[in-house]
Amino acid sequence: MKIHWTKFFLFLGYMFLYIPLLCIVVYSFNDSRYLSTWTGFSLRWYKALISNQIILQATWTSLKVASISATVSVILGTMAAIVFTRFGFFKGKSLFIGAVTSPLVMPEVVMGLSLLMLFVGLEKFFGWPNGLGSTTVIIAHITLTLSYVTMVVQSRLQNVDKSIEEAALDLGASPLKVFFVITLPMIAPSIILGWLLAFALSLDDVVIASFVAGPGSTTLPMVIFSSLRFGISPEVNALATILMTTLSIGVIIMAIIIYKKNLQNGAKNETIHYSIGK
Fold it and tell me: What is the helix, strand, coil percentage profile of the chain, to 5?
């Protein structure tokens, strides 16, 4: 009997990743408070989650911060990727690239401490920001996720056929119109992926947020980590199950949209190349 070792190790890898997630889902319906014993099926922890204002407030804060930071990171990251791929060499470009990509290799502890010192210095000399809060967390997460979005969009821009953009410019279209009509639809899948990546990174961050968060801006990961000393409540399992289900549905929908968009872009590129050829 021939053993397909590649598929076997791939199966083991998937099991290593998803069995813990499956355990979270299963034990979110456990009637017992303790993870070591199963006493029966129950929805008590979902009911308790609805009345837990601390977790609900932290969840809302995390979703708000992640959505805003991901959106701003996509806008700035797309602009930075265009500078990387569409602009020639200019004075200071190497410094600009290094500044944008440095968070990829910078330890989060160092980033969190440096951002905290920055905000304290700005408040001391300019009076802004007025204390730590959601605004400082959003700025910190934009700093963290911007480089990831830039790399994702840049990799897509490098594979975009420049002759299509040049043909549109030769036909009289302005650079701004070329971007919105031709370039943007072709890089839309990478922009969506960059937004999802930035959203996940912001939602998951606890190190940087611990440095720059203030009263009333506690995120969900901070609440979960602070409760570790007392033991994980099954309410967290219920919340994790809801988040995983929601995000999984969102990823599936985005995958379908990206797949259809790629098919449309492929057909559009063939039409444009055929027209240029004639």
Answer: 80, 0, 20
